[in-house]
Amino acid sequence: MAKLEQAEKPRPSPIAAMYGSFDTFVDVSYAKIIAGQLGEEFYDVIDALRGWEGLYAR
To answer: Which of 29, 36, 50, 52 is the most buried (most CB within 10 A)?
Structure first.
């Protein structure tokens, strides 16, 4: 029964697995953009990944 319950839980996305949550990934990414470590076009990447994150949770 425990395996069935575990199987029904959605798996975290690779981003959520690495950063703990997608919001943490966004916070880290924004900080790197502001610090100049990532280009401003990375805002577009974050937006695209946000859409993917929603699809992954289904």
So the answer is: 29
Q: 19, 25 in Cβ contact below 8 A?
A: yes
- Please state, in angstroms and as integers, the Cα–Cα distance from residue 34 to each residue in 12, 21, 27, 43, following that order: 27, 20, 11, 11
**H-helix segments, the chain:** 2-8, 14-19, 22-34, 42-56
Task: Please tell me the predicted confidence (pLDDT) of residue 56.
Answer: 72
The first and second tokens of residue 53, run together, are: 């994150």
pLDDT digits (tens, 9 = 90+) for 1-35: 566 666 667 778 899 999 999 999 999 999 999 99
Look at the pTM and tell me if it is higher than 0.90: no
* Number of Cα atoms under 13 Å in the Cβ half of residue 12: 10
